[in-house]
C-alpha cells in the first residue's frame, strides 16, 4: 500500500490497543512507524516491570505489520517530571494519579517532540478517546466505548497536542479491537489489559512505596478523637477504604466495619468512621488546584456540567464556578462517596472533556451547610 496521508509515529506499548491503532492507520494510508518508550529503569532489582516482554511484543507486532520500531528512554524525564511529584503528593497525604501527569509531561510532550525529530507531524496512541471539532476547535471527546473511555487520564493534555494526535481505537469498542487483532494474527490479540500504575505493575503498592517513603506510625481515631487503633503511615491508606484496626478492646463501639474518612496530616492521624455509608464519607462540594483546561481557558459560562472524581466513574451532574486562584468550586447534585484529595476532578460538557484539576479540599453536606 502506498502511504498518502503523511507520517505518523504510533506509541507502541506492546498492548493490543496500540497494535490495532498501527494496523488501522496503515489501512487508512498513513506512513506508520512505532515508538516504544521506556519510562522506568527497572534495575530496582524486582521482577515486576514487564518492559522486556512488552518491547518484545511491540517488536513482533511491528515486524508483522512491516513497520519500523524506534525505542527511546525517557526514564530521566519521567523521574523528574512525574515520579518526584508523585512521591511529594504522597508525602503531603494526598493520593496522586501519576498517569495523568505522565500523559501531559511524557506521552503528549516529550513523545511529540521526539516524533517531530523523526520527521512526523503527528503521533497516535491506543487511548479510548476521540478528537472532534466543536465550535471550530479541536476537542477531546470521550471514547465511544463507555467502559473504556480514557478521557479522564487525558484531560490535562492541551488542545494543541490533541490536535496533533490520532486516536484510531477511540471510535471502537474493546471487543472489536481484540477481534481485529485476532483477524490479523497479532500476538497481542489476547494480551490482558495493563492494570494499575505502569511502573508499579502487580506488586503490592505498600511494598513499593516503602522503598521511597519511610513508615510514619500514628493513631487511628474517631471523628471525636477516641483512639481506636494504629496506622503505619497515612500514605498507605485511601479514603473510603475499609480499615482493619489491628487492635482489640473497642468495647465502646458496636461490631461494625470501619472506613477511612479523613487524614489529619498535622497530627498524623487517620480518621475512621463506622458504616460504609457514614455521612462523613460523602462529599457535597469540593475545591481544586488551578485547572488544566484542554482549551486553555474555562468555559464561557459557569453553570451545570458533569464531573468524574475517579476513572471508571460515570460522570455525575454538578454545578461549578471558577475560583480566583484558577481552580474551581464544584457542588454535586448528589453527594459522592470517597472523593479523594490528590485525585483529579474532570469536567464534561456532554461528550466533550473540558479539563480538570487536582482536588485540594472536600466538604460533606453538613460542613457545606455551616
Ligand atoms: N511504553 C510505551 N511506549 C509507547 N507508547 C506507549 C507506552 N505505554 C503506553 N503507550 C501509549 O499509550 C496508550 C495508552 O496506554 P495505556 O497504558 O493506557 O495502555 P492500554 O490502554 O492498555 O493500551 P495498550 O493495549 O496499547 O497497552 C497505548 O495504547 C500506547 O499508544
In short:
The protein is an alpha+beta fold and 370 residues long.
Write structural notes for this entry.
The protein is globular. The chain is an alpha+beta fold. 25% of the residues lie in helices and 29% in strands. It has helices at residues 16-27, 51-65, 75-91, 98-117, 151-154, 159-163, 174-183, 205-210, 365-369; strands at residues 7-11, 31-38, 69-73, 122-124, 129-134, 137-142, 165-166, 218-221, 227-231, 242-243, 258-264, 269-274, 282-288, 292-293, 303-308, 316-322, 328-337, 344-349, 352-363. A hairpin with a 4-residue loop joins β11 and β12 (269-274). It contains nine helices and 19 strands. The longest helix has 20 residues, at 98-117. It folds into three domains: 7-205, HUPs (Rossmann fold); 214-276, Adenine nucleotide alpha hydrolases-like domains (SH3 type barrels, Roll), CATH 2.30.30.280; 280-363, Elongation Factor Tu (Ef-tu), domain 3. The strands form four sheets. A six-stranded antiparallel beta barrel has the order 13-17-16-15-18-19. A five-stranded parallel β-sheet has the order 3-2-1-4-7, sandwiched between helices. Adenosine-5'-triphosphate binds next to α1 and β2.
